[in-house]
Amino acid sequence: MAFLAALWLPILLSAAGVWIASAIGWMLIGHHNKDFGHLPDEAGFIGAIKGMGLAPGNYSFPNCADHARMKDPAIQELMKTGPVGSITLMRTPISMGGCMIKTFIVYLVISTLVGYLGWASLPHAGVPFRHGFQTLGTAGVLAYAFAALPNGIWFGSSTRAMVLGVVDGVAYGLLTGAIFCWFWPG
Fold first, then answer.
1. Half-sphere exposure for 159 (CA within 13 Å, toward CB)
2. What's the total number of domains in the chain?
3. Range of the domain at 123
4. pLDDT tens digit string along 66-93?
């Protein structure tokens, strides 16, 4: 745990830097505004979901919770003809503050792990920027850019949304690497 004492500042600053960059991307630039489509009858759709009394959570349709159900001819036909999908229902009201705090905690954990990797693989003092950036930036890119892709593939995210997620992740990872190098011990 010695790395925490030595790297607390770049851990904190890189998490904050990514949190700010993410906020700028989502709120000011707005490049993710088209990640989700609009329903043609949103009010009717919401009414139908309310009428089902579903609790917040993740749902799939058709639901294939086990292999036996996948063999059912009716399910196989639905899988061919559709619609096939998933839906996430969130708790209401949505707490923007709570989501922002939880997101910052995730970024803090990622920065802590990037710092640990750097501490385990780099000299503890006097790391040349280029060498540190190569190692720590790569670790950051891996953490931010690629972790969500399998879920995006399996649960139908648009190619555009996945590509923008990777672009964001590369920026966040490189920002993380740079902050660590700027504030690496002596």
1. 0
2. 1
3. 2-36+94-182
4. 888 888 888 889 989 989 988 999 999 9
